C-alpha cells in the first residue's frame, strides 16, 4: 500500500471532445508542501476538482493515504481527511468570524445544526475553534461579522474554515489572489503556521509565494505535467522557461506565470 498522502495515477479528464487533464501522474509525500503552477487555462482548478471530488475522472486513479477516492462525493473525501479552499470565498458573511470557524469544526465532527444552541457549552468545539482562530491570527476579530473583515482577513478566515475540520491534506486555490505585497507576506506566514505538520497542495500565480513555500513544484501546461521538481531545479528548467516564455533568454522568474 502506498504511503503517499496523495497519489495520482494516469489521471485524465475530458469535457466532451476537449481533453483538459492528460495522463497526470503525481505522488505527494506526507508533510510535503507542493505547488501546482501553470498558465491560465492549463487545468489547475480542474485538477483540484478531480482531487476533491467535484469532478469524476474520465479515467485514472486518485489515492488519499493509499485509498482510492476517485469519483467519491466531496463530503466523503473531506471526512477522509482532505479539505480545500476556493478562489471564490466560501464564508458566511452574515455570521461572525467565530461562528464561521465553529461551523467548520462542527461539520467535521458530524454534528448537525440542531446542535447549534448547545455549542457554546461544548468544550471540545470551543477549544478547537479557539485554536484555529489563534493559528490564523483571527482571535482579536472573532466577534466581528465576517462581512466587516478586510479582504486579506477574509482570505485568512477561508483558510481557517479549510483547516477547521482537522484534515491532514489541505488544498489551497490561489490563497493570495488580489493581495498587496505586505498582505501576501502575512498570508504566506499564516499558511505556514496554519498548515504546519500537514500536507499542503497549493495553486498559486505569485512566484514569490511559490518559491517561498513549496518543497516541490509541478508545472501544468495544457493539462500535462511537464516538470515536477524542487524550486531551484524548476527555476533552471529549460522546458518550463520555454512553455512560459517562448525563446526568451534569462527570464525573470516573477514573470513565469
Ligand atoms: N466544466 C467544464 N466544462 C468544459 N470545459 C471546462 C470545464 N471546466 C474547465 N473547463 C476548461 O478546462 C480548461 C482548464 O480550466 P481550469 O479552470 O482548470 O484552468 P486553470 O489552470 O485553473 O486556469 P486559471 O489559472 O485561469 O484559473 C479551460 O479551457 C476551461 O475552459
From TrEMBL:
Among InterPro entries, the record links this protein to: AAA+_ATPase (IPR003593), ABC_AA/LPS_Transport (IPR051120), ABC_transporter-like_ATP-bd (IPR003439), BCA_ABC_TP_C (IPR032823)
Domain (ABC transporter): give its ranges. 6-247
Does the entry feature the keyword Transport, yes or no? yes
- Which CDD domains does the UniProt entry name for this protein? ABC_Mj1267_LivG_branched (cd03219)
The record's keywords, sorted A to Z, are: ATP-binding, Nucleotide-binding, Transport
What molecular function does GO assign, one term?
A: ATP binding
Q: What is this protein called?
A: ABC transporter ATP-binding protein
Q: Which organism is it from?
A: Maritimibacter dapengensis
Amino acid at each position: 500500500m502506498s504511503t503517499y498522502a496523495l497519489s495520482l495515477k494516469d489521471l485524465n479528464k475530458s469535457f466532451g471532445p476537449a481533453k483538459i487533464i492528460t495522463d497526470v501522474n503525481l505522488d505527494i509525500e506526507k508533510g510535503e508542501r507542493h505547488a501546482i503552477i501553470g498558465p491560465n487555462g492549463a487545468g489547475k482548478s480542474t485538477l483540484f476538482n478531480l482531487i476533491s471530488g467535484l469532478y469524476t475522472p474520465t479515467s485514472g486513479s486518485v489515492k488519499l493515504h493509499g485509498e482510492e477516492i476517485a469519483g467519491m462525493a466531496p463530503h466523503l473525501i473531506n471526512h477522509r481527511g482532505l479539505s480545500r479552499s476556493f478562489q471564490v470565498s466560501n464564508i458566511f458573511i452574515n455570521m461572525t468570524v467565530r461562528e464561521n470557524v465553529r461551523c467548520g469544526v462542527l461539520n467535521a465532527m458530524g454534528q448537525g445544526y440542531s446542535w447549534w444552541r448547545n455549542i457554546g457549552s461544548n468544550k471540545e468545539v470551543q477549544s478547537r475553534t479557539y485554536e484555529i482562530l489563534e493559528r490564523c491570527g483571527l482571535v482579536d476579530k472573532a466577534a466581528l461579522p465576517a462581512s466587516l473583515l478586510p479582504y486579506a482577513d477574509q482570505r485568512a478566515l477561508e483558510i481557517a474554515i479549510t483547516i477547521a475540520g482537522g484534515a491532514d491534506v489541505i488544498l489551497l486555490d490561489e490563497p493570495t489572489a488580489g493581495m498587496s505585497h505586505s498582505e501576501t507576506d502575512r498570508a504566506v506566514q499564516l499558511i505556514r503556521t496554519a498548515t504546519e505538520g500537514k500536507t499542503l497542495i497549493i495553486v498559486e500565480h505569485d512566484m514569490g509565494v511559490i518559491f517561498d513555500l513549496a518543497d516541490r513544484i509541478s508545472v501544468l501546461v495544457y493539462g500535462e505535467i511537464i516538470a515536477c521538481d524542487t524550486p531551484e531545479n524548476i527555476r533552471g528548467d529549460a522546458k518550463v522557461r520555454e512553455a512560459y516564455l517562448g525563446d526568451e533568454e534569462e527570464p525573470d522568474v516573477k514573470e513565469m506565470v
